[in-house]
Design brief:
This protein is an alpha/beta fold. It contains 21 helices and 10 strands. The chain binds adenosine-5'-diphosphate (ADP) and magnesium ion.
Length: about 475
């Protein structure tokens, strides 16, 4: 596969075999699959890596294993020179893909990454809206998620070619959805015409059931089996869904055989998903299975700062440290603590300090769970408008119900990290465009109408305190 002085096939195969025998399989898959070496010249050998990130990573983490494998391969000690493979598909640098994108050469279409607050819609026939913040550049890399991040970038770099399927698992709120959507953003930015489908497993199940009921299976199959890239979030929901498992098995096979990328996320590794058919377990394990772990302290601090920055604030380090101590595992909650603190600061109009953070957290009544839930929001709205929850969730569209419902949706967008779909789900299964419309409408009213502004401020006060 390489030409010129790089007689890569033979020494590369031997070298890789030795590396493979020495390190864990997952690590090998992740880091060495696209590595090759040259012949030896003057006791030196070139080690070609697919990109700068892998090159640096191998150099700092696998030097011993590499030296040992080289010695075995050439029966003498040789010195490796770490290089980026000039034939490699991409030479994206470092963790921060956005920087790489900005200084990318002309051959690389400059992607329009969506800005915060802008919602990017998947094209051409997707039903899910991507969260505009869930990009690689907004993803903080630490020890807990380094593998997951590197693997996800590799998948986005060369869909269908590096790791297929890519199976990402870890407990709730650790960034699985974020990474899946980051893959979508990057691929869409580079190739807007790509036929990419991201959805929750729940949607897949619901659409399958609907297709069964309407005897419309062929349209359903047409849709799923013709995509270039399929990403299904929370695939553990296939548990106990025998017929959907059956259907997904065929979807999977069709796409896999076409070499199309499949990305799955789950709260458990394939073998631990209850009642998952053995043939699905084995297929899910065919590519790369990576776990995403809870963040360590340093990563939590970085995430907190990053989240504050996304909201236009610089979080002082002592404040970030304080919050990172309070919330230890779930990143969604970590983010909730920033939202809460910043909301509190603007409410009482005081600078963001450790003291203020302590007050903000204490005020939440549960320092370790500072997340505002949609139920809190609903409770406040129901009280204010004197309506019933069942009315908000009903299909009725009278103005006296539509308005409080829209206020709920607006507040849920403001205070929670729920997706548009999830928010819609709380209000009688309304779709994401309805939620988007509602949030938009209330934002405009707040700008135009002092009374609305005052009302929202009062509701915010009740929610936050
Ligand atoms: P899960 O897939 O486990 O449900 P999510 O992807 O929804 O988790 O992440 C929960 C929240 O935490 C999201 O708002 C996401 O942006 C944020 N998050 C998770 N990991 C990171 C990270 N490494 N850097 C920045 N934000 C993160
Ligand atoms: Mg998720």
């Amino acid at each position: 596969m390489h030409s010129g002085e790089r007689v890569a096939t033979h020494p590369t195969a031997t070298f890789l075999r030795h590396v493979q025998a020495a390190i864990r399989e997952q690590q090998f898959d992740l880091w060495f699959r696209k590595v090759s070496i040259s012949d030896v010249t003057d006791g030196r050998v070139n080690l070609f890596c697919p990109n700068e990130f892998v090159r640096d990573w191998l150099n700092s983490n696998y030097l011993d294993a590499i030296l040992a494998a080289l010695t075995e391969t050439f029966a003498t000690a040789v010195q490796p020179t770490f290089l980026v493979d000039p034939n490699a598909l991409s030479t994206l640098a470092e963790h921060d893909l956005s920087t790489a994108i900005q200084r990318a050469p002309a051959t690389f279409a400059p992607p329009e990454l969506p800005h915060a607050g802008v919602v990017a819609t998947l094209s051409p026939h997707s039903d899910t809206v991507l969260h505009s913040d869930y990009t690689f550049s907004n993803f903080v890399v630490g020890n807990s998620n380094r593998f997951a991040h590197a693997a996800a970038s590799a998948v986005a770099d060369a869909p269908g070619k590096s790791y297929n399927p890519f199976f990402l698992h870890g407990s709730v709120g650790l960034g699985k959805t974020h990474l899946l959507q980051a893959i979508c953003h990057l691929i869409l930015a580079r190739t807007p015409s790509v036929n990419i489908l991201y959805l929750s497993c729940e949607s897949f199940i619901n659409q399958f059931i609907a297709a069964l009921e309407n005897s419309d299976l062929s349209a359903f199959r047409n849709k799923y089996r013709n995509v270039d890239i399929l990403l299904v979030d929370d695939i553990q929901l296939l548990a106990n869904k025998e017929r959907t498992q059956e259907e997904f098995f065929h979807t999977f096979n069709t796409l896999y055989n076409l070499g199309h990328q499949i990305v799955l996320s789950s709260d458990a590794p394939p073998k631990d998903i209850p009642t998952l058919q053995e043939r699905l377990v084995s297929r899910f394990k065919m590519g790369l299975v990576v776990e995403i772990a809870p963040p360590d302290f340093e990563t939590r601090v970085n995430i907190l700062k990053n989240k504050a920055r996304l909201r236009g604030h610089d979080l002082p380090t002592d404040v970030a440290n304080f919050l990172a101590e309070q919330v230890s595992t779930n990143i969604r909650e970590l983010e909730g603590s920033v939202t809460r603190l910043l909301g509190f600061a603007s409410l009482v109009n005081r600078p963001v300090t450790v003291d203020l953070a302590r007050e903000a957290m204490a005020d939440s009544g549960a320092a370790r769970a500072p997340v505002i839930t949609i139920h809190q929001i609903i409770a406040v709205v129901i009280r204010h408008f004197n309506v019933k929850l069942s009315d908000l969730q009903s299909k009725r569209r009278t103005q006296s119900l539509a308005y409080p419902r829209q206020v709920c949706m607006y507040l849920a967008r403001l205070h929670t990290n729920h997706s548009l779909e999830e928010i819609g789900g709380y209000f009688g299964g309304r779709d994401h465009t309805t939620v988007l419309y509602a949030a938009d409408k209330i934002s405009k009213l707040i700008e135009e109408n002092p009374a609305t502004q005052e009302m929202i401020r009062a509701l915010n006060r009740q929610i936050l305190t």
